[in-house]
């Protein structure tokens, strides 16, 4: 996981949000937006710039579910498992996705960094249930059968 | 009643006298309210809920985070509170290792202590404790995160008092742990090994690394000559655990105990401190005479401070004294002397300090790959060894240390308390060598348990500005001030608040007892017939003997390998 970090990108984010400890969440969000995860290498740099310990930044980064310390796949698939989607059978869709991609609850990203599969509690699109998103594009009224086709299309895009 | 404000605690009217919280007031009236997460010197966390009290309206408040109000009525021991406290303890024990008999913290554990106090005889929940997750990468401390109760004392100590920031909370909810960044081994973190986290840890989650087995083994080997040096702070730190009073000087008894255990030669690190005084004051005088104005001379006795400086302020290293710590100066000489023996030489140091364990492993202090100090044991480990050997400590007849290195001075003894190094150096460089001159140094603001002390003395016609700090947060604040242009000539830094008497290897005691430890050292100084290091007759013979032409080699050091783990 030795990613070369463009510290200019990090610097720009820090400059925009202010070089102060209280801006840490925003800064981490900015970095995650750029890299799709929080690379380990930015932690010492941030600690030095903001004057807080690496352990504390790690504390913040692990507290929020939204931050990822693992690199995410090119396609991040989020399956909604809110009440409406759940009763309309979102779990079989999740299981099908995991089966086809060789993933599990603990292993969320494929080794080739192609796909990440995770669940969300509600996407706020209950009328379209069961719903999933691929990199923020919404796929409504999903079924187990549609999963294979979706993955086939995505693989072609890669 | 005038302007005085009162409140009622368990039916007794109590005067409110500026206490920060109910807990302080309750403890002042002699009620031992239980806590896990409260330490007066740290910020209030209010997580353990053991200090809950019931108000007159029947509501429950955490005493640690509620200020006292005039007219308030509280109860500290009701059926409801007892039930809640038991419940909390049962829940903590439900996922805590209960193998107390084989725990390193057996007998010193607050969880064990409170479970006993609240008569927990049955835990209604199944035990879900995970297997031990031990990190023994550091030579100073050993961590087992699965014995952690998440009180956060270590985190606040590491961040607020020491400004090290090696550990913090990580993850959330049931997955929360205390962790280094990315759960790296503690030796790869910014940890400096000061051991203050182990001092405040209520359970066996952070303990001092145990080296007693190695020492026992050396003592048992007839072909090994085991020499030992005892640091100043140790003599005032172990009394309470062994049936003496807080701060009582137990040096004579320690010597007697060590001799019975089989140590061949027993010395006092204060002698090493005398060497440090001579070398360090020479360094200071040279600086003053050269008129170097830019940066102060920082002391180098404290290994946790040296490590902190290496990790956080490498640019300051050229201004840190090149003197080895008293332990290392003395060890170099003792090892040199032991060369004459036909037996294998092992040197043990009894220290109040966990960072010394790391210092002993540093390459700078090895000769042909063999460390000058083979093993460092802390005061806690010494207590353990004394108990193990069955010696009734309180009944021991005091004995004196050995020759040829058995003379020391009062200047060396006070190294164990914050301000001591400075006072010893001032005794050396002061032109007024009279008794009143000696006494006046003591009143120049070098004594006392404050974290930051400043004083100015005259050297010739020059004003010498001195700062004394203990606690690494105080040190880093001072360094920032110096960087902004404030001028000092000499800065004494001790990593542990109050100096070595409160080191990470000392048994944990409340604040009042810590003050007694300091007093104990100052009265030991008073009892010494020699007060100044340069008057120690041994110094002359050392400089004309072993040290001849080798002062730099044996007494000084240049910290080169900054990237060693530890």
Structure explained in plain terms:
The complex is a heterodimer of chains A (158) and B (566). Chain A is built from 7 helices and 4 strands; from the N terminus they run ααααβααβββα. Chain A has 158 residues and is α+β, with helices and mostly antiparallel strands. Chain A folds into 2 domains: 57 residues, no CATH class; 83 residues, Glutaredoxin, CATH 3.40.30. In chain A, strands 2-1-3-4 form a 4-stranded mixed sheet, covered by helices on one side. In chain A, α1 packs antiparallel against α2. With 566 residues, chain B is an alpha/beta fold. Chain B folds into 3 domains: 73 residues, Ubiquitin-like (UB roll) (Roll), CATH 3.10.20.740; 121 residues, Alpha-Beta Plaits, CATH 3.30.70; 347 residues, Rossmann fold (3-Layer(aba) Sandwich). Helices cover 35% and strands 15% of the residues of chain B. Chain B has a 5-stranded mixed sheet with strand order 2-1-5-3-4, with helices on one face. Chain B has a 4-stranded parallel sheet with strand order 12-11-14-17, sandwiched between helices. In chain B, β11, α7 and β12 form a beta-alpha-beta unit. In chain B, α8 crosses α10, α8 crosses α14 and α14 packs antiparallel against α15. Chain B starts with a strand and ends in an 11-residue tail after the last helix. The mean pLDDT of chain B is 91. At the A-B interface, α4 of A face β8 of B.
